Amino acid sequence: MQTIPIKPVGQAPLVDAFQRRYYYLRLSITDVCNFRCNYCLPNGYQPEANKPSFLTLNEIRLVVNSFAAMGTEKVRITGGEPTLRKDFLSIVETIAQQPAIKHIALTTNGYRMAKDVADWKAAGITSINVSIDSLDPRLFHRITGVDKFDDVMRGLERAFEIGYQKVKVNSVLMKALNETDFDQFLAWIKDKPIQMRFIELMQTGEMDHFFHKHHLSGQILADRLLKTGWILQEKGVLDGPANVFRHPDYVGEVGLIMPYEKNFCASCNRLRVSAKGKLHLCLFGEEGIELRDLLQSDDQQWQLQARISSALQGKREHHFLHQGDSGVRTNLASIGG
Ligand code: SAM
Ligand code: SF4
Fold first, then answer.
1. What is the pLDDT of residues 142-156, one digit of tens each?
2. Residue 253 backbone phi and psi in degrees, to 5
3. For the chain, which domains are there?
């Protein structure tokens, strides 16, 4: 009789009950941020009393090893502002040492990109997303709470100079704020290899009035793009959540991130680990599964993988944002957006 080899739980690739496969880990390394974006941390980062410290370099190594062993090929480092960590370069180098991880992406507010981007590249960052909510320095200041538009733009230029072929720019487009930047952003990427990503404002526990005043449906932007000759592209397995559009007359691309769209969750390929070491199956709607007790030594790898695999079986088919349920998420700085 032929025997069928059985892989222990935790050794198999990460697949959930809806047959979605997970190749992509979004790893937050700090909750701290030096910006005060009005949709994220309008009062700036507020340290919590008795808060557990953020993942150490060794804990990050162990978490990445386990995900890599279960098929993860891409890690996005996020925060808070990840580049505020003093050991940021060591973190990148540590992740880069894991051969299964082919892509290390960074999401940053870009405040130190002009100075440091060459070091980031040397350490192993393969792609960069930088947040720029307006091309008008005054509006940028109004939204982010800081007067750093010129620094961020210099950082972007520097990223191209030192050899990044393409950079993604994130912008949360909001009614009665930066909505009219849409056309300027399109004109800006006409001759630049930028993927301009418009993120639909998501409601979090800390905003209600703000959301209703400023939420702008991504569908409106999609309709505008389709009417002006932009063509929706097919997604690859490692691609993030954006619907990407291209236009024959433009060097740049547009990515729309529309979490309120009906099928947004069907292509979910990412899991999140917070800076305090909790696994989050979805950006919204759950408290997170503690991993930290299993991040103390290399010997715990199998147990850690088993916990991640079995937790994944509880991942819901979709979030409940449509019903106004943002779960327990007070803001996205605590989990990295
Ligand atoms: N500090 C870095 C930055 O701003 O790029 C990384 C962390 S930030 C939480 C990641 C992304 O989440 C940013 O592009 C930000 O614009 C986005 N974001 C934060 N809060 C959001 C919200 N309520 N709705 C939509 N996007 C949000
Ligand atoms: Fe900081 Fe990023 Fe949140 Fe802005 S969006 S406050 S830069 S974490």
1. 999 999 999 999 999
2. -120, 165
3. 22-334 (3.20.20.70)
